[in-house]
Amino acid sequence: MSRISQRFNDLREQGKTALIPFITAGDPTPGITVGLMHDMVSSGADLIELGVPFSDPMADGPVIQRASERALEHHVSLHDIFQMVKTFRERDQNTPVVLMGYLNPIEVMGYATFAGAASAAGVDGVLIVDIPPEEGEELLQSLRDKAIDQIYLLAPTSTPDRIGQICNVAGGFVYYVSVKGVTGSSQLDTAAVAEKLEQIREKTALPVGVGFGIKDAATAAAVSQLADAVVVGSVLVSRVEALQETPDEIGPALAEILSGMRRAMDAVH
Amino acid sequence: MAITAEKIIGTQPDDRGHFGVYGGLFVAETLMEPLKDLRLAYEKYMQDPEFLKELDEDLANYVGRPSPIYFARRWSRELGGARVYLKREDLNHTGAHKVNNTIGQALLAKRMGKTRIIAETGAGQHGVATATVAARMGLECVVYMGAVDIVRQEANVYRMKLLGAEVRSVESGSKTLKDALNEAMRDWVTNIDDTFYIIGTVAGPHPYPAMVRDFQTVIGREAREQIQQQTGRLPDALVACVGGGSNAIGLFYPFLDDAAVDIYGVEAAGDGLETGHHAAPLCAGQPGVLHGNRTYLMEDKDGQIIETHSISAGLDYPGVGPEHAWLKDTGRAQYVAITDEEALGAFHALTKIEGIIPALESSHALAYAAKLAPAMESDQIILVNLSGRGDKDMHTVAALEGIEI
Questions:
Q1: If you write DSSP's letter for every residue of A214-267 in order, what string do you get?
Q2: Cβ contact (<8 Å) for A180 and B290?
Q3: Which of B32, B172, B303 is opposite residue A105, by nearest beta carbon?
Q4: Which residue of B has its CA nearest to A80?
Q5: Across the strands, what pairs with B166?
Q6: What is the side-by-side strand order in the sheet with B83-88?
Q7: DSSP assignment string, B212-272
Q8: Of B266, B332, B324, B270, whose CA–CA distance to B297 is shortest?
């Protein structure tokens, strides 16, 4: 069983919802990322999403765009990120790590090379924003060959047919984008999310995560009653940005946000 | 993979938007259904006689089509060699070929019940052409434009505002056309329900490359008839500049099955291909995925898109339409590059010798024609797409010569 499935099984037995933080690898500097990953795990993260910086992050709002730009000032590449995950794995063999990003860096590296290096580094899943299943057969096969889960997004605009089609190829969990918009958007409508999750669950037994628009402990708690995982990104990354001049304060600041969310989520279960 | 089949027209793209290995549909899930809706509407209305009639009427009475072809007699004589004909897209309403496409997409938007139009723009020509049709149809219009381009194309920014469009400055990334496209996509994904995104070139996810091509092929259909009427035969060579490549594909497409017609797409070599400061993905880039399609890109070894350079904002784009990528690989078209300096030379030559001030983008095509012509016979014909007029470039050219206007 993959580390991702194991983690979701364990949480289900404990009656808990997964908390999944997202940060961009190498933001604001490459040296800080592994430490932040450990800090997030000790403050309640169950799985970590590590953003792979890209020059043209079309699906991201300004907060995560700027994170990409900060990381790219240091030329953070996939090779650097594999090294970060490898270092993280020296102390943590249980927390799943998912890389999230855009296709082109992977396309340039080559699918098989990417999958091999990711697997060797200890990466468990890959979420690529801009490759729908229609275009993704070859990549999916490369990832499956290395037992890496390919995580897919579902959106408010996904029809039941599409949900079925995507769930057929998805691995690890599926990630429901709760709003029409880019990362960091506001106005999450829990009733609409609940309705859509019901449609998704008719099509798949995979755990369902919800992200885009989780602002604080209260929205995290509300979503945790509906979903199997709560994904939080922009709110963390904006703290990284605010504290970039005092990097020692970033870890504690992220820990504070996550432990608040953890408590609020656990309290409603 | 050279083409052996006689017939190319109508074979590309496949039903999922692929031109060979290029093109396709590489977008976030939220856009998949809206793009499917757009594809179905486009497929439906391109078969609808009412729609096509309205499009033709608008092209005739509002844009001023057909645009003439013009024999540049004095310039040809000076070059010595082939006779050079110009397809005068610069005479269209709004001053470039861009309006052929915005008219078509705006009619589609209206039929799809959309009330808000967004667009990206580089040189500002597509932004102006979009703001123009939005004004005419009474639609709300937002144009995204890189902060760098806003400075170098001030006059077009003002034109868009006069036309009632809101111009939003894009401060992310390189602050040029590619970033404006990113930002327009972000707007679209957020406002899917009421918004129609008018992409200005033959790039983006399916169906845009095919749809924009189909709206622009009016250039080549007219030119193919006109050149035969005027000269009694087909041209020996076609030349057009290629940024995203919409004016080029518009001219080339109706000639693709005419095997004797050589086809040249001209990219921006900027300071020179060897300097790395250019915008020539077909000549000096490699395949990758950006803005919803697979195509040739300007990218670094990590797959990050790199900043481009060209004197002309309209060619300053790190990608290129996927159909051009396919035409390059199949060998049906050849892609070459012209430096800033060569383009400026052609800009001045055409202005002084023919009394036509070309856009800096089109000047790249003219400069390549000027290289081809002397090596050809005097009974041979080169047809150049004069895709736009140079009024918008007055400030750029004057500044290079140390003149303030």
A1: --SHHHHHHHHTT-SEEEE-HHHHHHHHHTTTSGGGHHHHHHHHHHHHHHHHHH
A2: no
A3: B303
A4: B302
A5: B142
A6: B69-71, B83-88, B381-386, B237-241, B262-270, B334-339
A7: HHHHHTHHHHHHHHHHHHHHSS--SEEEEE-SS-HHHHHHHGGGTT-TTSEEEEEEEEET-
A8: B324
pTM for this entry: 0.96
Which run of H or E residues covers position A153? strand A149-154
Share of chain B above pLDDT 70, in %: 99
Helix B98-111 vs helix B208-216: crossing angle, to nearest 10: 120
Burial class for B374, CB neighbours closer than 10 Å (0-12, 13-18, 19+): exposed
What was the ipTM of the complex prediction?
0.95
CB atoms within 10 A of CB B53: 10
B124 touches A: beta carbon within 8 Å: no
A113 touches chain B (CB under 8 A): no
The whole-chain average pLDDT of chain B stands at: 96
| Backbone phi, psi, residue A129, to 5° | -65, -40
Residue count of chain B, please give it.
Answer: 405
- Do residues B373 and B239 lie in contact, with contact meaning Cβ atoms separated by under 8 Å? no
Measured CA to CA, the distance from residue B66 to residue B208 in angstroms comes to 24
- Phi and psi, residue A257, nearest 5°: -65, -45
B155: left (phi over 0), alpha (psi -120 to 50) or beta: alpha
What is the Cα–Cα distance from A114 to A118, expressed in whole angstroms? Answer: 6
Asked if B340 and B310 touch (Cβ cutoff 8 Å), the reply is: yes
Distance CA B337, CA B77 (A): 24
Distance CA B323, CA B325 (A): 5
Ranges in chain A, pLDDT < 50: none
Closest CA to B369 of B125, B80, B68, B66: B80
State the average pLDDT over residues B146-155: 88
Instruction: Give the helix/strand (H/E) hosting B179.
Output: helix B177-190
Distance from CA of B346 to the nearest CA of A (A): 34
Is residue B321 within 8 A of residue B209, CB to CB? The reply is: yes
